[in-house]
Amino acid sequence: MTNPAERLVDLLDLEQIEVNIFRGASPQESLQRVFGGQVAGQALVAAGRTVESDRPVHSLHAYFLRPGIPGVPIVYQVERVRDGRSFTTRRVTAVQQGKTIFNLTASFHQPEEGGIEHQLPPHHVPHPDTLPKLADEIREHLGALPEALERMARRQPFDIRYVNRLRWTHEELKGSDPRSAVWMRAVGPLGDDPLIHTCALTYASDMTLLDAVRIPVEPLWGMRGFDMASLDHAMWFHRPFRADEWFLYDQESPIAHGGRGLARGRIYDVEGRLLVSVVQEGLFRPYPAKPSPAPEN
Fold first, then answer.
1. Which residue of 16, 74, 163, 221 has the smallest Cβ count within 10 Å?
2. 60-84 burial: b if 16+ Cβ within 10 Å, else e
3. DSSP reduced 3-state for 102
4. Which tens digits make up the pLDDT trace of 149-193?
5. Confidence class for position 289, pLDDT limits 50, 70, 90
6. In whole angstroms, what is the distance from residue 29 CA to residue 86 CA?
7. What's the gap between Cα 147 and its chain centre?
8. Which is the catalytic residue, given 159, 206, 211, 250?
9. DSSP notation for 49-66
10. What strands, in cross-sheet order, belong to the sheet with 57-64?
11. Angle, vertex CA 150, rays to CA 261 and CA 282, nearest 5
12. CA quadruple 42, 192, 194, 276: dihedral, nearest 10
């Protein structure tokens, strides 16, 4: 079986079908919609392939407009908005079956020396080597992974380890703050292309960020009471990094209201250096209650 990290690299290796037009695979998964991190990562690859390699991406702003269909290729159309002396801007439109499903604007910056230097330090957390893998933590609670989760675990390109042990009941969640933190890294090497590492981390950034919105309301794993979807996503890349080395994803939700929840994330390396800042808003709609069975006569 191909290593999941190798599959991720393949997923991010877009086919160029015309100048400024790329096509990405969309695996046939047992999901209602294409994973948003996949579309964001592929769109960023398309943008980056039109920019000189000495200008890494420093920010992206994206909107999820329609759910993508698993198994159907996605076409990425790149608009070269600006090529300045130190900044480059690209706009990407993702199209599937003739409909726009996603928009992304990315800015690339030639690195500069000097200027203001400071950062917020991370919270003190256990080292990832002392924490259980997510799949093992779920197995410990359930005894064994359900078949669907077992397949997902085998295909998961990132090792995810929650800083705080998962809570499985609403009683355990009482009084919880809207915060979550995970250690993550790709399950195998991703090569040496910095753009692939940036796009792989973009993929990962959509995996757990909305956890912070849900934690005060329901357990993260098990039956969900809400249908949720990413609405928009923004990232700022501060320092170079490798997505196949451990990074801490510290997440919080300052507000949830009116069917939407906002989440903010800070990504640090094991040395405590702030690498990336992330903000995302998600849509949260309660699943309709199932009707009670009719009483027997």
1. 16
2. bebbbeeebbbeeebbbbbeeeeee
3. strand
4. 777 778 899 999 999 988 888 888 888 899 999 999 999 999 999
5. low
6. 41
7. 24
8. 206
9. TTS-TTS-EEEEEEEE-S
10. 15-18, 21-24, 74-83, 87-96, 99-109, 57-64, 226-237, 274-286, 260-269, 247-257, 179-186, 158-162
11. 10
12. 100
- 247 with 226: CB under 8 angstroms? no
Report in angstroms the alpha-carbon separations of 109 from 49, 184, 197, 221: 15, 26, 17, 39
Active site residue 28: no
Among candidate residues 26, 38, 230, 253, the one labeled active-site is 230
Judge whether 230 counts as a catalytic residue.
Answer: yes
pTM of the model: 0.93
CA 290 from centre of chain:
31
> DSSP states of 114-180 as a string?
-S----PPPPP---GGGS--HHHHHHHHHSS--HHHHHHHHH-SEEEEESS----SHHHHTT--SEE
Give the E-state strand segments of the chain in sequence order. 15-18, 21-24, 57-64, 74-83, 87-96, 99-109, 158-162, 179-186, 226-237, 247-257, 260-269, 274-286
